[in-house]
Amino acid sequence: MPMKNQSEYPKYNQERRYLLIFAGSLAVCLLILTVVLVVLLLQPSASGQTTLQAVPLATLQAANPTLPPTQPATTVKLVNFPSPVVTVATTAPATTVNSVLTSIPTTAVVTSATTATTTTPFASMSSPTVYPVTTARPVITATVLPSLLPTTPASLVITSPVVATASSPAALKSGLAISNLPDGRLKATLSDLHLTVEYEASSWAATNLNEFVSSWQEAYTYVSQRLHFQTPINMTFVLRTDGSGEPLGLGVRGFSDVPKATIYQLYDGTGDKIDREYITAHELGHMVIFKKVGWGVNLMLIEGYAMYASEEFLRRDGLVTLHDFAVAAYQQDRLVSLGSLSLPNANFNGRLIDRVDYDQAGSFVSWLIETYGMEKFEKVYTTAGYTNVYSKTLKDLTQEWTNFLAQRSKTKPLAFDSALYFKYLNKISQAYVNLYAKAAKNANQLDAATYKAIDAARLEIDRHHYAAADALLQNAGLS
């Protein structure tokens, strides 16, 4: 083997020394940087707390165009979090962790959480749960569903040892827990209200759950007082969209499975807030009277009592009330035989189409209660024994009620033209019939634009804004 030229050794040794010095300096720098990062990660905030600061959804959407525009969540950021391991406990029942994500300050929230081991509601945790988050930065992002209250707390506070507490005492009121159902829907459990709400994760109902719970509370309070029943009822509301299948068919906005304490309600943004609250109150009427006295003997009494229970919300919404509707039907010779409405095949297939049947039954039941009292009516409700209770036949009572309508039409004249009103009711009912007939041939898929136009026109007609109703129908090609 040839020998290396000895004159090259000094140069070689010098280069080696430079390399060792450089490597040593780099190692020291890396060590110092590591120590600094560890100190930053473990250093608590000055107050000993970490605040979840609300980030407006619009800001997130501007930073991340892929974020769905209807994302039903309030997004918050944990600033200066003391550890890349998040531990949360069960002391914030008005909020729910949907996902725990890695992030840096310049990025918006993402919609999936690959680094989170689980997604568990605060209120359903029996013990603290640890979410490992693989990040080298002292910032993580969590998506928190909004409180089911009229006002959502502006912030939450994380205190050592990283236990979540609500900033507002009112947030603890509902005892909320949100969990996933096997079919992919969500279930909100409000233990303090004895209420469970099931809904689609990406639905209008999910985005407006606050409104529903607030309306439910108001409706339940009113109906319970009106029907003289104050015993709490554990119940479930299943919020649906029109055409979503049984037990709600096309055009049916509510259905009460009272033995199972379950109510199915159309909650897809149609109507206005009070109109939706009317449906809630109507179905609660079915629930409360079943718990109070049992099954109604026929649909005329069952639906009439639910209309009596919920009429107040029609009045609040500026819609036609029961006696006014019945007077208008009387004037236009549109009253249906109460005997036929008492038969098993009576047409109570949704008030959007069978309006006369529902409102006439409601007026008759209201008159019975106003004239003879609720105690007697509740005996008739389960038996239809008019003669035993009132010492009068249904025919006799029908004549008395008709006389009441005739007298009312003179002493309390309607504020609207009954002929014009029924002309437009016929038009809107036929529009619904055509809409649903078309949907039935298309796997119950509704034409969304037409559906919304008819719904808006329906409310305008009941407020006697006929020109506005015509414009809506014409724009939808339905004139």
Summarize the SSE layout with pairings.
Blueprint: H1 9-42, E1 49-55, H2 57-63, E2 74-79, E3 85-88, E4 96-102, E5 129-132, E6 139-145, E7 156-159, E8 163-166, E9 176-180, E10 186-190, E11 195-199, H3 204-207, H4 209-226, E12 235-240, E13 254-257, E14 262-266, H5 273-293, H6 299-316, H7 322-331, H8 338-341, H9 355-372, H10 374-383, H11 386-390, H12 394-411, H13 418-440, H14 448-462, H15 466-475
Parallel strand pairs: 11-12, 12-14
Antiparallel strand pairs: 1-2, 1-7, 2-6, 3-5, 4-6, 7-8, 9-10, 10-11, 13-14
Helix pairs in contact: 4-5, 5-6, 6-9, 7-9, 7-12, 7-13, 9-10, 13-14, 14-15
**Strand runs, count:** 14
| Uncertain parts | 1-12, 37-174
| Content of β-strand | 15-25%
Shape: globular
What structural class do the secondary elements suggest?
A: alpha+beta
**Major β-sheet strand ordering:** 4-6-2-1-7-8
Would you list the SSEs in sequence order as H and E? Answer: HEHEEEEEEEEEEHHEEEHHHHHHHHHHH
